[in-house]
Amino acid sequence: xxxxxxxxxxxxxxxxxxxxxxxxVDNSRAADVAVAISNKLDTDINNLPVVASAPxxxxxxxxxxxxxxxxxxxxxxxxxxxxxxxSKLVTEVLTSTVKDLFGGYFIVEPDPLKAAEGxxxxxxxxxxxxxxxx
Length: 134
Prior knowledge:
mainly alpha; globular
């Protein structure tokens, strides 16, 4: 799959396994790649072994962009607890309800090794769901 996308983008080989897609406001680039892969595999984005990570979100807009990634169906890592705990309803939706609605969810983990394990686990689960080797 990464070879097909890489060659379609004009590279002579596959895309790397980890892609930096720019700053948080460049999320449409990541969406374009996820949509292309989901179209190629004929599945929804929330089934793809694709994750997002914001290890050091520094503003309120990072919460909005992370929520966008979750709503797009991606497991999304945050390195700090987002400032959403003031509202019982918002906290419930973002920590519990959202996965059932969209397939994406937050992984809040400050330890980078534990965060990597959580992201790899999410990708392995989705690869298994697509019948891809883990």
